[in-house]
UniProtKB/TrEMBL annotation:
<feature type="region of interest" description="Disordered">
    <location>
        <begin position="336"/>
        <end position="361"/>
    </location>
</feature>
<dbReference type="InterPro" id="IPR044855">
    <property type="entry name" value="CoA-Trfase_III_dom3_sf"/>
</dbReference>
<dbReference type="InterPro" id="IPR023606">
    <property type="entry name" value="CoA-Trfase_III_dom_1_sf"/>
</dbReference>
<protein>
    <submittedName>
        <fullName>CoA transferase</fullName>
    </submittedName>
</protein>
<keyword id="KW-0808">Transferase</keyword>
<dbReference type="Pfam" id="PF02515">
    <property type="entry name" value="CoA_transf_3"/>
</dbReference>
<dbReference type="InterPro" id="IPR050483">
    <property type="entry name" value="CoA-transferase_III_domain"/>
</dbReference>
<dbReference type="GO" id="GO:0016740">
    <property type="term" value="F:transferase activity"/>
</dbReference>
<dbReference type="InterPro" id="IPR003673">
    <property type="entry name" value="CoA-Trfase_fam_III"/>
</dbReference>
Amino acid sequence: MALKGRRVVELSQFIAGPTAAQLLADFGAEVIKVEPPGGDATRRLPGTEHGSAYYRCFNTSKSNLTLEIGTEAGAKALDELLASADAVVCNIAPGTLARLGRDPERLMRDHPHLVVTLISGFGQDDARACMDTIAQCESGFAWMNGGLDGVPRVSTSWPVDYFSGLYAAYATAMALADPRRTEGVVIDVPMLEVASAVLLGPAAILAGEGAALDGPTGNRDRASAPSSIYACADGYAYVYAGLDNYWARLAPVVGGRAAPFGDRLAAPAEFDAAVEAWTRSRTRDEVLAEMARLGIPAGAVRDPVEAIAALRATRPDAVTSEGPEGARLPVFPARFSGQRIDRRPAPPLPADNADPGKEIR
């Protein structure tokens, strides 16, 4: 694996930092997760008899220890650990890092060899607290994601946390792999920048160039029409018919008028109404079958249970795998020449870490 032989210390909780470290572990890094004495806060979030689903989802293939880094003994043990590491991934808030004497300048002074990856809400020069949903709102995404009534909407699946973890892991891995690097480096990953880069997309370019931005569009596609979620007799389906060649095929079927791209985009409600008047009298499967016949992209709106079953019908090893005692493990969403990355279960909370350094020296 690409990162085999590299040691990464993780000082993080919740999602963004643990995701970054998890991805580094996937590619061979030895990840040592440092938890506070009570453990990562996600251990106390909902789950099953196997424990918190949140903790188990983002902490596979790691070892761990508990350490109170705010004490003199804990700080000494952490320094010993960092001295043996190649990188540290941290999502402790900048203000807290400064109070602990672990701000970027101090980390570089004490451990000049380290790749130091710091995930925060607004960057290391801004002490404001931030969570995923706050970044969605502050970045403009919640406004863009709003309904047709103009009410902003956040995604409850933590996209900013995931993407922040992904960018942090990517940046850390590239720094570790750089053969020209002769000293440590601080990688500053602000969640707000990640949200702006990933969730706004072309809107960020348009805003930067002074172009007017359309208001919230609900489930409608911003760049084509008609393309949206449509009610069927027994559920919902997404139909992407907004490109000219697709609409030319669908319009005669649903009784819509022929219109060029610009006209449709300027009046999406008219064309959505034509499509939905047709879909409402048909089952979801009938709608999808007709779209397949016409060669128009479409998909069912499924709940997670149905969605996972549908995916596993064609990729049986997708989404989760079976771990010890029937617990499920999240699966890395790609195969390498047909093989999956082997993930180990997230580690339990250590029972005794009186001398945590002893285990990892």
